Amino acid sequence: MRIKIINYSLVLALISVIAAGCSKVLDEQPRAGIDPSYFRTPEGIQGGIAGIYSSFRGHWGTQIFTQLFNAGSDEFQKGAAADVQHWYTFNNAQIRTEANNYAGFWNSMFININTANGVLEYGAAANMPEATKTQVLAQAKFLRAFCYFYLVTTFGDVPLHVDFNTEESTADSRAPEGEVYAQIIKDLTEAAQDLPNLPAPGTGKPATKATALFLLSKTYLWRGWSTAAQSGDFNSAYTIAKDLIDNKAQYGLDLLPYFPSVFKEGNEYSPEVLMVIDRTKDLKFGQNSNPGTFASNPQENKSNFFFRPNYPAINANYPAGGGANLTVRDVNNGRPFQRIRPNTRYVIDVAFANRETDSRYDGTFQTVWLSNSSPMSAVGSPGATTPRGQLINGVDTSIWMADRVVTSQERANFKGVIFEPEHLPGATVRYTASYYPNLRKWDDSTRADMNDYSDRPFILFRFAEVYLIAAEAAIQGGATPQDAAALINVLRTRAALKLNQTPAEYNAAVAAQQVSAADMTIDFLLDERSRELFGEYTRWWDLARTRRLVQRVKAYNPEGADGVQEHHRLRPIPQEQIDLVTEGPAFPQNPGYE
């Protein structure tokens, strides 16, 4: 590989030294040369780990990454302001010309891999306590595996480098995905042996033994579906995931009892969370803009904005013009970027069809907005006046994104504006690309200004997915359909708990939520993954892994149905990477993107 795109990982220097293994790291990888032997120092190897963790903030929660890895699935369609629209519609001509949308992700992962290689090559000689050194080296193995996991599952065959590279080269080639999976499995297996069961106090949610086992189980699951599959992959995926579940107390893990609490602000380090990407408002790290300057830095966490409808534009006489806006922009409701919206055809009719007995719809979507006439409206003060009466700020619901067609009487008695799913017969005021339920999982009410980015830790891996991994592996032959149903029923029983239920209502909901071995198909499992993980940046990968991308987009997403093809299960290699290889055989593009 021409290292010009990745050699910045050779040049680490600490901004501040952190505890080994800490994921709550906010250090950057500076871009200035140093001697590679710096990795023999405690500052060098700990700085290397810090830099890798820090780099993830440039992806998860950022604008282009959010759209690239959520677009083109059964879950989402483009919002009115989507800026990579061809990925939602699978416009292949546009995709070819803009393959470099993936360049930042590709380059960053290879920067991190070479950093990890430097830590592993030189770190063994670092003058530091052996126990600390062991932890740092285990972190490096986990992080190298993490980066390769996302590369191979996104692009297929990719260059495989496990030696520290200090020289530029204009030649490289792609290794078969089987070799990449084997290296990931080796790194994660070794990392799991040395990582601690629990994170050190005050370090947030770095990689622990459980995190490594989680990703190891998921890697076996991916390989089991791939052309590089080996006998026993699904069994290994099931066994590792089931062991995590059976020994959850050992790792300080558990499901929270109430689904809507999982993403409640302040619960980012709860027992359900395996790994987060920490964020910061500190400007010295170069990934943020000044507070109150409208979230202008492309590396900021703006996940709390991307999924928001244009609620401040709904006026008192909607859909006719005129009248005051019913709810104005404020900190709690956030800035409406309108980049990506739920595909309500799939959400309402399929994934969350059992809304009466399943709390996950309510825990996933904001469907009501309260009246306010200014960001600081006093509760009880008068709000906008609609044809049906005057709204009271902080008391009356001004906007309701209903999940059904409402009756004419309901509409007449409601002072605000009611929207209905656009695909339902009889809907009158319909959802649009600007007006739809808001994904609430990434909400952040702690921002000083209504336009500020979020510094909430981004929840990346959580314990509920361990059940889903084990169930999928069981369905694929790693265990039995009965085993899969038992695992899914744990999640569905948790989901039966809703606010203000009587004991009888709860018991009835639990009974209604139970599934049997006969229900255990991959398509059912994919729907269950939506109910549990909707909007958590996993869906395109889920459909790619299970080879259901084309089938489910055609079935549920009219926006992408005409364009989706089998080759879209892989993303295109960035063109700049292809162009940099000028020595030896040409670097190949993925089929379908040539």
Could you explain the architecture of this structure?
Mean pLDDT is 91; it is low at 1-34. The protein has helices at residues 42-55, 63-68, 86-89, 92-97, 103-122, 130-155, 177-194, 209-225, 233-246, 303-306, 344-351, 360-364, 408-413, 464-478, 481-495, 503-513, 522-533, 539-545, 549-556, 575-580; strands at residues 76-78, 273-277, 340-342, 365-366, 368-370, 382-386, 389-392, 397-401, 417-419, 438-439, 458-462. Helices cover 37% and strands 7% of the residues. The protein has 20 helices and eleven strands. It has 594 residues and is mainly alpha-helical.
| Largest sheet properties | 3 strands, mixed
Strand order of the largest sheet: 5-8-9
Average the pLDDT over all residues and give the rounded result: 91
The fraction of residues in strands falls at 5-15%
**Uncertain spans, ≥5 residues at pLDDT below 50?**
1-34
Helix content: 25-40%
Q: Specify the structural class.
A: mainly alpha
> Alpha-carbon distance between the termini?
20 Å
Number of strands: 11
Approximate shape: globular
Number of helices: 20
Main features:
mainly alpha, 37% helix, 11 strands, single chain, globular, 594 residues, two-stranded antiparallel sheet, 20 helices
Write a concise synopsis of the structure shown.
This protein has helices spanning 42-55, 63-68, 86-89, 92-97, 103-122, 130-155, 177-194, 209-225, 233-246, 303-306, 344-351, 360-364, 408-413, 464-478, 481-495, 503-513, 522-533, 539-545, 549-556, 575-580; strands at residues 76-78, 273-277, 340-342, 365-366, 368-370, 382-386, 389-392, 397-401, 417-419, 438-439, 458-462. It is mostly helical and 594 residues long.
